[in-house]
From TrEMBL:
Its cofactor is Fe(2+). This is 9-cis-epoxycarotenoid dioxygenase NCED6, chloroplastic. InterPro entries: Carotenoid_Oase. Binds 1 Fe(2+) ion per subunit. GO terms for molecular function: carotenoid dioxygenase activity; metal ion binding. Pfam families: RPE65 (PF03055). Belongs to the carotenoid oxygenase family.
């Protein structure tokens, strides 16, 4: 959710070696992963996208391995030359050439006559440390300053947007292809690093063509030219050039580890299962539909109940009713809830919360109106006439009819950090929600003259009276991207760890906020140094008795020194907010989105 306007991005191009690789088979992919294309268009055998695995450091004759994309010494991104896959028949190739001509001669020419807003201008959105990087095979023996805590044995992974190909039109940061960055932490103060694209159906198909082929939902689908882009895609799909039936998502936002699987998520598709290898490398397995239990996209912020092990998540639909559905899976991955939640309008619901007994769902003012494109506008609309509200749903509700809606005016929380239940002095049940309230609500989608604010807030909702109150916990400080100790999700917590989003849109440090007192303890990265979401890892696995202190653990995250042009991962002690270790990384790590930590114990139970 971060934007920059500092430096120009670097040029990526598809290497000749990998163009030839795309015409061979790969044993790393299965037909379940590659899209099942229209008849007589795509061969049954999938085409590879993975770079060859990195050779062992002990190999006497290590093979030189090229990454999937390379950087050129250039300061602009340019569209790729079309590379028509060998499986296309003669008619399809002619049609592809004709559609490409329409795109370059008509659509792109008209787009050049329009000044792009900063929020969808590629020169802004993918510049500086928001610019994409190439894949990096595993590097071992990284320099470590300080000591990696003994409890941190495993792999830290963080997701982000990393467009493989230069956009031909508008581009929003959320539109980029998903890339996961992984830092392995082992015995003896040893660390490794790698980064890999998540091989989505969309990316695999675009790699065959060597260019963008699918519309960018936020950057391109605006107004009449957005309709033209949509029509172009439909024509390509109708001719069998591309296939969106197996998803069009980019898997660039959230990461979660559930039931032995690392899942890469964006709310426009099913999650993607990504394997963590024994070498702490990453390998895409494929789209994950929870063993044929669902067939719809899921949001990028599922909630894992630390007590029951259940996974709670949502689906929202922008085209038809039901606009919202709630799902729950038990700790074994079996679906136990599939409920329709009645809302009147297709609404952006990026996040939600759970308590011990309830699911708390925001229904805020950012809505979808596809008809706005006909009028020349964006389909993502800030509806100022709508009153924000939260739906409180009993987890044991089997039909969804018992949901209680409570109005919370002037509230737009893009992220919710925690929620819990309390009993008031009069015996009423209160739902307490902790989130960052963003103003203006459409700040990350549209330019505004108003000063951006994202303030940590407490919302209290009385289930009997259906009244609410709201207060800012830390006024005057932009706090976004973070979390509580995950062992106490859904229970009353005292601390929350958040990125200090200042100067917006960059993050200059970490804030530990005491929710009882409002006290803020900061860890600042330093001059010209910026990071992203801090991830908290508890030092010890706690029981329901909550033995020990809630802040006993460590916070980790990536930091970029923009002056020295160096990237590192920092580890900060949660109780003291002092740095205990820093790991120098072999390549630039762009600013990104959300991450997680998978322990050695969890990796041993990984589903292969």
């Amino acid at each position: 959710m971060i934007f920059s306007s500092t430096m120009q991005p670097s040029l990526h191009f598809f290497t000749p070696k990998h163009q030839s690789l795309l015409q061979t088979q790969s044993q790393l992919f299965t037909c379940k992963f590659i899209v099942n294309p229209a008849k007589k268009t795509v061969p049954r055998n999938p085409l590879p996208l993975l770079s060859p695995p990195a050779p062992s450091r002990s190999s006497p004759h290590p093979e030189v391995v090229e990454p999937m994309v390379q950087r050129e010494r250039s300061n602009v991104l340019v569209p790729q030359h079309p590379n028509y896959p060998v499986h296309l028949n003669r008619f399809q190739k002619l049609a592809a050439v004709a559609l490409d001509k329409i795109e370059t001669s008509v659509i792109m020419r008209l787009e050049k006559n329009h000044v792009l807003p900063k929020m969808v201008d590629p020169a802004v959105q993918i510049s500086g440390n928001f610019a994409p990087v190439e894949e990096c095979p595993v590097h071992h023996g990284l320099e470590v300053v300080g000591r990696i805590p003994a409890c941190l044995r495993g792999v830290y992974v963080r997701n982000g947007a990393n467009p493989m190909f230069a956009p031909s039109g508008g581009h929003h940061l959320f539109d980029g292809d998903g890339m996961i960055h992984a830092v392995g932490l082992g015995l003896g103060n040893k660390a490794s690093y790698s980064c890999r694209y998540t091989r989505t159906s969309r990316l695999v198909q675009e790699a065959r063509f060597g260019r963008c082929m699918f519309p960018k939902p936020i950057g391109e689908l605006h107004g009449h030219l957005g309709l033209a882009r949509l029509g172009l895609y439909m024509a390509r799909a109708g001719l069998g050039l591309v296939d969106g039936s197996h998803g069009m998502g980019v898997a660039n936002a959230g990461l979660g580890y559930f039931n032995g699987r690392l899942l890469a998520m964006s709310e426009d598709d099913l999650p993607y299962h990504v394997k963590i290898t024994g070498d702490a490398d990453l390998e895409t397995i494929g789209r994950f539909n929870f063993n044929d239990q669902i067939d719809c996209p899921l949001i990028a912020h599922p909630k894992l109940d630390p007590v029951t092990g259940d996974l709670h998540t949502l689906n929202y639909n922008v085209l038809k009713k039901p606009y919202l559905k709630y799902f729950r899976f038990d700790k074994f991955g079996r679906k136990s809830r599939d409920l329709r939640v009645d809302i009147d309008q297709a609404t952006m619901i990026h996040d939600f919360a759970i308590t011990e007994n309830f699911v708390v769902i925001p229904d805020h003012q950012m809505v979808f109106k596809l008809s706005e494109m006909i009028r020349g506008g964006s389909p993502v609309v800030y509806n100022k006439n709508k009153t924000s509200r939260f739906g409180v749903l009993q987890q044991n509700d089997v039909v969804g009819s018992g949901i209680q809606w409570i109005n919370v005016r002037n509230c737009f929380c893009f992220h919710l950090w925690n929620a819990w239940e309390e009993i008031s002095d009069t015996g009423d049940k209160i739902i307490v929600v902790i989130g960052s309230c963003m103003n203006p609500p459409d700040s990350i989608f549209n330019e505004s003259k108003d000063t951006f604010r994202s303030e940590l807030s407490e919302i209290r909702m009385n289930l009997r009276t259906r009244q609410s109150t709201q207060r800012v916990i830390v006024p005057g400080m932009n706090l976004e991207a973070g979390q509580v100790n995950g062992q106490y999700l859904g229970q009353k917590t005292r601390f929350v760890y958040l990125a200090i989003a200042d100067p917006w849109p960059k993050c200059s440090g970490i804030a530990k906020v005491d929710l009882q007192t409002g006290k803020v303890t900061k860890f600042m990265y330093g001059t010209w140094r910026y990071g992203g979401e801090p991830f908290f890892v508890p030092e010890k696995k706690q029981t329901c008795n909550r033995n020990g202190n809630e802040d006993e653990g460590y916070i980790m995250g990536f930091v970029r020194d923009e002056k020295k042009e160096m990237s590192e991962m920092v580890i900060v002690q949660g109780s003291s907010m002092e740095q205990v270790a820093a790991i120098s990384l072999p390549s630039r790590v762009p600013y990104g989105f959300h991450g997680t930590f998978i322990s050695q114990e969890e990796l041993r139970r990984q589903v292969i």
